[in-house]
Amino acid sequence: MKIMGALRLISVGVGPDADAEMRALVALRAELEAADWRAAEDVRLDYPRARITAAGVVIDVTLDCSARLLVNYRAGVILIEGVDSAANARTGRTRGKGKAS
């Protein structure tokens, strides 16, 4: 699928888990690019624990980090809306629109 907002996956976290978070986000980007989602059910097959709502999809990347996505299944496009991370919440840093991350 085509990815928009991929720069939001760049980790700006701090602390001992920042490297693991960055590796997980890089892997997520590769998985999203390789995905071929036609409907929410396809997301559920790839990410059984994803939270899928009318507002979008939230995928937990690590225990303390999740990616917020908007998916246009028909166009084959995923918009990375933002990344929420416990480390970023502690430092007040944000990635993406909407929630502080």
Description:
The longest helix is centred in the first third of the chain and has 17 residues, at 18-34. The chain has helices at 18-34, 40-46, 86-91; strands at residues 2-4, 51-53, 56-62, 65-72, 77-85. The model has no long low-confidence stretch (mean pLDDT 85). The radius of gyration is 13 Å and the shape is globular. The chain is built from 3 helices and 5 strands. A 5-stranded mixed sheet has the order 1-5-4-3-2. It has a single domain (2-91), classed as YaeB-like fold. It is an alpha+beta fold.
Layout of helices and strands:
Layout: E1 2-4, H1 18-34, H2 40-46, E2 51-53, E3 56-62, E4 65-72, E5 77-85, H3 86-91
Parallel strand pairs: 1-5
Antiparallel strand pairs: 2-3, 3-4, 4-5
- The percent range for strand residues is 25-35%
Order of helices and strands: EHHEEEEH
Strand order of the largest sheet: 1-5-4-3-2
Low-confidence stretches: none
Helix content: 25-40%
Q: How large is the count of helical segments?
A: 3
Radius of gyration: 13 Å
Specify the structural class.
alpha+beta
- CATH first level: Alpha Beta
Task: Return the average pLDDT rounded to an integer.
Answer: 85
